[in-house]
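Pasting as-is:
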Amino acid sequence: MNVGDLIHYLKLGGFTMAIIVACSVVALGVAIERLIALWGVSDQARMLGEAVGKNLLRGDVAAARTAAERSDALAADIFIAGFERFERNRGGDGVEAAVERERTQVALKLRRNLWILGTIGATAPFVGLFGTVAGIMRSFRDLGLDVGAGGTGGTAAVMTGISEALITTAAGILVAVEAVVLYNYFQSRLARVAVELKLLAEEFVELLRERPAAPATTNEGSASAPTPLAATTSGAS
């Protein structure tokens, strides 16, 4: 099939074919947008989790929060929500719930616009079928007018019209397959990302609860040591 035949069939489909082509373009647009949005999400989340975990293992909560705030990773919101709840409640109560809520929000952001692919996959065949039915009705109407005018087009004219009308059903099925394949791909990928974020969130909560005591600062150490004046005074007494 060359470009001329393709244009011919597109014209035969009429308004219905225009809708199907628009659905195909929208599906591809959503797929490209989601690919860009999901690009590197898992790697960035993993790297941020490692950086936050190393600081928490040293007991340095401030450095761990700074690492999360400076990160561009989408998962950074999960860690920041946990740190904010931890600072508001020094006992650590509610950190897990705050982290889980933010993880759910991140998952919703990752799933944005996927409903469009699902809708196109479910409705495109019916749009194509509507175009075919309309084309067949037009063919029989033309046949009736031809017979009434004394024409001899007969069955050949009807068959030609029906074969041309079926192009919309074929196009609708093709676009539906495209949308469903893309939808299932993103569903599978997002399920894997969701599991990775859940594991990172659980590990983060555990490290935050079981972190070692913060290392003593130099100022605190010098403050606890006796000053030379105090030592001289005690020796003189």
